[in-house]
Amino acid sequence: MADAIPHWTSSRFRWNATKFSCSHTRFNKKAINYLFPKDASKYVTIVRNPVEQFESTFNYMQIGTVFGFGTDPSESLKAFLKNGIGFNMLRKSGSSVLARNPQMFDLGLDFKFYQDAKAIKEYVEFLEEEFDLVLVADYFDESVVLMKRLLCWELDDVLFVKTNERLDKDKATEISDGTKENIKRWNKADVFTNTLTKLFGKESKGKEKTFTTILRTFVE
Question: In b/e form, how buried is each residue of 48-63, taking b as 16+ CB within 10 angstroms?
């Protein structure tokens, strides 16, 4: 752990001592490349099915309450998607920045490009060059096994315990097909994260038998 924490040198951080960073932070190429040069680092991020991820973020961060759509997980979500909010409202509070395209926000896309399909596509292509591996939350076991391989770790290094899961009462009990489509329309940029998952498949391509064996061992 000591190697993962920057050391003090007089009044400044000696950032070149940092060897590992695992943090929920917004991607900023200039800052990250400075701290972790591309030629000596591995960049890993994670995405999730955009429909499920938005419902989770919306209710976990109580976005419906922030914008006055109530507290019911299902009804507030439907009301929010029906009415929407202006771009100027995305900075209303700390959580409101996640009220639209939360995954692409975390990956560094500027608000002004949220409805620009060409710009989004180009940004996804940029991300594909920046990241060595994109984990997929919907396939978490498979993802951590791929990360283990990429970082030359042991299986013990990627063991995990599931925590901080929402209670059923805090989840939208029913998401209709119409609501799912509205989520996709509202989060147009996040839908493009599906193409990032090809970096997930790229890591296992041609090594399926070995991967399956390791995965079975890990799960068991």
Answer: bbbbebbbbbbbebeb
Total Cβ atoms within 10 A of residue 125:
11
Q: Which residues of the chain have pLDDT under 70?
A: 1-18, 170, 173, 198-220
Structure tokens at 152: 């030359």
Binning the chain into helix, strand and coil, the percentages to the nearest 5 are 60, 5, 35
Residues whose CB falls within 8 Å of the CB of residue 189, separated by 6 or more in sequence, listed in order: 101, 104, 109, 113, 114, 120
Determine the 3-state secondary structure of 134 from DSSP: strand
> Model-level pTM greater than 0.70?
yes
* CA end-to-end span of the chain: 28
DSSP 37-52: -GGG---EEEE--HHH
Give the model's pLDDT for residue 215: 56
In angstroms, what CA-CA distances link 136 with 41, 70, 198, 199?
20, 31, 10, 10
Neighbours of 80 (CB within 10 A): 21
pLDDT tens digits, 28-57: 999 999 888 889 899 999 999 999 999 999
